[in-house]
Write a structure and sequence with these properties.
There is one protein chain. The chain is α+β, with helices and mostly antiparallel strands. It has helices spanning 13-22, 48-60, 94-110, 136-141; strands at 2-10, 29-30, 37-47, 67-79, 82-92, 124-133, 148-151, 153-160, 166-174. It has one domain: Cyclic phosphodiesterase (Cyclic Phosphodiesterase, Chain: A, Alpha-Beta Complex). The strands form two sheets. A five-stranded antiparallel β-sheet has the order 2-6-5-4-7, covered by helices on one side. Strand 4 and strand 5 form a beta hairpin. The two termini are 28 Å apart. The structure holds adenosine-5'-triphosphate (ATP) and magnesium ion.
Length: 175
Amino acid sequence: MVNRLFLGFPVPMEAGVALAATLPRLPGRPVPSDNLHLTIRFLGDVDEVTRDRLSAALDESELGGGFDIVLGEMGAFPRPAKASVLWIGLAQGRRELIALNGVVEEACDLAGLEPEERPYSPHLTISRIRPEVDTRPLLLSYRPEPIKWKASELILYESRLDRGTVYVSLEQFPL
Ligand code: ATP
Ligand code: MG
């Protein structure tokens, strides 16, 4: 069995509700509130043996303690003038997420996964846009609220892409 997996943090429901209250109508396909998450490491298709190795490696890893996440400005990938992804950045917690991504990368290596070549950039995806649009006016008008929660456990998710994306929490790793 091979499953599409990733490691990340959910956005608690209250934080998702508070965020939605700050957002205007977004272009593209907004991420449903149940699916809002911060990705730490996308794993792609992983077989059971590799998953077990990764799980064991994460159990042995020093993941650091829980930390506060505070949401910040809105941004867009690949660039605001021609955006395909809209995201909310972090006013607090970036450093910890980047450190955790480094620890997780080592566990992935121990498990035999291919290294992630792309640099890690913590963000909360809020909409996916096809075709791309100019989001500069939207980004300029957005006034961030300091929405805050505590990240206390890393989650191994399965991503099921059939009939609308559903993320299933498979394992928890306390920080
Ligand atoms: P959908 O693909 O249906 O729009 P999704 O992108 O959230 O939904 P996945 O493609 O399974 O679902 O991705 C899960 C998470 O991993 C998301 O946060 C996504 O941005 C991230 N991700 C997906 N592919 C990659 C990749 N190649 N590199 C880095 N992160 C990725
Ligand atoms: Mg995707």
